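Researcher: Next sequence.
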Amino acid sequence: MNSAPESAWFKSSYSSDQGASCVEVANLIPTHSRIAVRDSKLSHGPALTLPPEAFTAFVTYVRT
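Model: Next structure:
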């Protein structure tokens, strides 16, 4: 179950139009103080939710 409306989800600007290996992110800060991440191919599947600090650490790690 996803905890964000469909309009809240977005893909990275680095994602291709092919959709083969994309994740989508939704900012749940205003209501839940969390960031949600899901597989774009499984939009109705589960979403991983993280505190903002953990999401920032993940993105920083991936960039390096």
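Model: Residues 56 and 62 are 10 Å apart (CA to CA). The two ends are 31 Å apart (CA to CA).
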